[in-house]
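Entry 12.
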Amino acid sequence: MTTRQFLQSAADARNSTRELLQFIFAAELLAPSRCLWIVSPWLRDIPILDNTTGAFVSVCANLPKSEVRLSRVLLELLQRGTRVIVATRPGEGNRQVRDALVDAPFEAHAFRFLERRELHAKGLVGDRFALSGSMNFTYNGLENLEEMLLFQTERARVEELRIVFRQQYGDAA
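Predicted 3D structure (C-alpha coordinates):
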Protein backbone atom coordinates (compact mmCIF):
# COMPACT_ATOMS: atom_id res chain seq x y z
CA MET A 1 0.00 0.00 0.00
CA THR A 2 1.37 3.41 -0.88
CA THR A 3 -1.75 5.56 -0.41
CA ARG A 4 -4.93 5.18 1.57
CA GLN A 5 -7.61 7.85 1.61
CA PHE A 6 -10.76 7.71 3.65
CA LEU A 7 -13.61 9.78 4.98
CA GLN A 8 -14.01 9.29 8.70
CA SER A 9 -17.70 9.46 9.52
CA ALA A 10 -19.07 6.12 10.73
CA ALA A 11 -17.97 4.25 13.86
CA ASP A 12 -15.94 1.76 11.82
CA ALA A 13 -14.06 4.59 10.10
CA ARG A 14 -13.25 6.05 13.53
CA ASN A 15 -11.84 2.69 14.56
CA SER A 16 -9.76 2.75 11.37
CA THR A 17 -8.35 6.14 12.30
CA ARG A 18 -7.40 5.02 15.81
CA GLU A 19 -5.87 1.84 14.40
CA LEU A 20 -3.93 3.81 11.79
CA LEU A 21 -2.48 6.17 14.43
CA GLN A 22 -1.62 3.20 16.62
CA PHE A 23 0.10 1.51 13.66
CA ILE A 24 2.03 4.69 12.77
CA PHE A 25 3.31 5.27 16.30
CA ALA A 26 4.13 1.60 16.95
CA ALA A 27 6.14 1.58 13.71
CA GLU A 28 7.88 4.77 14.84
CA LEU A 29 8.85 3.14 18.14
CA LEU A 30 10.31 0.19 16.24
CA ALA A 31 12.19 2.29 13.68
CA PRO A 32 12.18 5.95 14.76
CA SER A 33 12.23 8.72 12.17
CA ARG A 34 15.03 11.27 12.27
CA CYS A 35 12.39 13.96 12.55
CA LEU A 36 8.66 13.78 13.24
CA TRP A 37 6.39 16.72 12.53
CA ILE A 38 2.96 17.05 14.17
CA VAL A 39 1.00 19.98 12.79
CA SER A 40 -2.45 20.55 14.25
CA PRO A 41 -4.17 23.88 14.98
CA TRP A 42 -5.96 22.20 17.87
CA LEU A 43 -3.90 19.67 19.79
CA ARG A 44 -4.58 17.56 22.86
CA ASP A 45 -2.69 14.81 24.66
CA ILE A 46 -4.94 12.11 23.18
CA PRO A 47 -4.57 8.35 23.70
CA ILE A 48 -2.45 6.88 20.88
CA LEU A 49 -1.63 3.29 21.88
CA ASP A 50 -3.99 0.85 23.58
CA ASN A 51 -1.61 -1.06 25.81
CA THR A 52 -4.25 -2.27 28.28
CA THR A 53 -3.32 -5.89 27.54
CA GLY A 54 0.41 -5.24 27.34
CA ALA A 55 0.37 -5.71 23.56
CA PHE A 56 3.24 -3.25 23.09
CA VAL A 57 5.61 -4.67 25.70
CA SER A 58 7.93 -5.99 22.99
CA VAL A 59 7.99 -2.56 21.34
CA CYS A 60 8.55 -0.63 24.55
CA ALA A 61 8.89 -2.53 27.81
CA ASN A 62 8.26 0.42 30.12
CA LEU A 63 4.87 1.53 28.75
CA PRO A 64 2.07 1.37 31.32
CA LYS A 65 -0.69 -1.20 30.87
CA SER A 66 -3.22 1.45 29.94
CA GLU A 67 -4.00 3.78 27.08
CA VAL A 68 -0.75 5.55 26.27
CA ARG A 69 -1.06 9.24 25.49
CA LEU A 70 0.67 11.16 22.71
CA SER A 71 3.12 12.87 25.08
CA ARG A 72 4.35 9.53 26.44
CA VAL A 73 4.91 8.12 22.95
CA LEU A 74 6.72 11.31 21.93
CA LEU A 75 8.94 11.05 25.02
CA GLU A 76 9.92 7.50 24.01
CA LEU A 77 10.72 8.74 20.49
CA LEU A 78 12.74 11.69 21.82
CA GLN A 79 14.74 9.30 24.00
CA ARG A 80 15.36 7.11 20.93
CA GLY A 81 16.86 10.04 19.01
CA THR A 82 13.90 11.41 17.05
CA ARG A 83 13.65 15.16 16.74
CA VAL A 84 10.01 16.13 17.35
CA ILE A 85 8.53 19.35 15.99
CA VAL A 86 5.01 20.33 17.04
CA ALA A 87 3.15 23.24 15.44
CA THR A 88 -0.18 24.43 16.79
CA ARG A 89 -2.14 27.60 17.49
CA PRO A 90 -1.64 29.61 20.68
CA GLY A 91 -3.87 28.49 23.54
CA GLU A 92 -3.58 26.76 26.90
CA GLY A 93 -5.30 23.54 25.78
CA ASN A 94 -2.92 23.25 22.83
CA ARG A 95 0.02 23.18 25.25
CA GLN A 96 -0.93 19.88 26.94
CA VAL A 97 1.66 17.86 25.04
CA ARG A 98 4.40 20.45 25.58
CA ASP A 99 3.57 20.78 29.29
CA ALA A 100 3.66 16.99 29.76
CA LEU A 101 7.24 16.98 28.42
CA VAL A 102 8.58 19.96 30.42
CA ASP A 103 10.52 17.97 33.01
CA ALA A 104 11.09 14.86 30.90
CA PRO A 105 14.64 13.62 30.26
CA PHE A 106 15.71 14.18 26.64
CA GLU A 107 18.10 16.43 24.74
CA ALA A 108 16.77 20.01 24.84
CA HIS A 109 17.37 20.61 21.11
CA ALA A 110 15.32 17.51 20.19
CA PHE A 111 11.91 19.07 20.85
CA ARG A 112 10.56 22.18 19.17
CA PHE A 113 7.15 23.64 19.97
CA LEU A 114 5.76 26.36 17.67
CA GLU A 115 2.62 28.42 18.01
CA ARG A 116 1.19 30.19 14.97
CA ARG A 117 -2.04 32.18 15.04
CA GLU A 118 -2.90 31.58 11.39
CA LEU A 119 -2.14 27.84 11.38
CA HIS A 120 -4.76 25.74 9.61
CA ALA A 121 -2.63 22.95 8.08
CA LYS A 122 -2.82 19.48 9.60
CA GLY A 123 -0.40 16.61 9.26
CA LEU A 124 1.87 14.01 10.76
CA VAL A 125 5.06 13.37 8.81
CA GLY A 126 8.00 11.07 9.48
CA ASP A 127 10.76 9.47 7.42
CA ARG A 128 8.56 6.81 5.83
CA PHE A 129 5.00 8.13 5.96
CA ALA A 130 2.78 11.20 5.73
CA LEU A 131 -0.71 11.59 7.14
CA SER A 132 -2.61 14.68 6.06
CA GLY A 133 -6.17 15.87 5.87
CA SER A 134 -8.69 17.77 7.90
CA MET A 135 -8.28 16.07 11.29
CA ASN A 136 -6.90 17.88 14.33
CA PHE A 137 -5.16 15.76 16.95
CA THR A 138 -7.98 16.13 19.47
CA TYR A 139 -10.70 13.92 20.91
CA ASN A 140 -13.26 15.56 18.60
CA GLY A 141 -11.02 15.10 15.56
CA LEU A 142 -10.48 11.47 16.41
CA GLU A 143 -13.95 10.55 17.66
CA ASN A 144 -16.70 12.98 16.68
CA LEU A 145 -16.11 15.05 13.58
CA GLU A 146 -16.30 14.05 9.94
CA GLU A 147 -12.74 14.09 8.62
CA MET A 148 -10.95 13.35 5.35
CA LEU A 149 -7.54 11.68 5.73
CA LEU A 150 -4.79 10.69 3.32
CA PHE A 151 -2.07 8.26 4.45
CA GLN A 152 0.93 7.91 2.14
CA THR A 153 4.03 5.76 2.17
CA GLU A 154 5.27 6.37 -1.39
CA ARG A 155 8.78 7.73 -0.95
CA ALA A 156 8.45 10.65 -3.41
CA ARG A 157 5.15 11.85 -1.91
CA VAL A 158 6.45 11.57 1.65
CA GLU A 159 9.61 13.49 0.74
CA GLU A 160 7.52 16.27 -0.85
CA LEU A 161 5.69 16.78 2.44
CA ARG A 162 8.91 16.47 4.45
CA ILE A 163 10.39 19.32 2.38
CA VAL A 164 7.31 21.51 2.87
CA PHE A 165 7.18 20.83 6.62
CA ARG A 166 10.93 21.41 6.95
CA GLN A 167 10.56 24.79 5.23
CA GLN A 168 7.53 25.82 7.28
CA TYR A 169 8.33 24.43 10.73
CA GLY A 170 12.06 23.69 10.84
CA ASP A 171 14.02 20.53 10.40
CA ALA A 172 15.97 17.83 12.11
CA ALA A 173 18.98 19.71 13.42
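Annotation: The chain has one domain: 3-169. The helical segments are 11-30, 70-79, 96-100, 139-144, 155-169.
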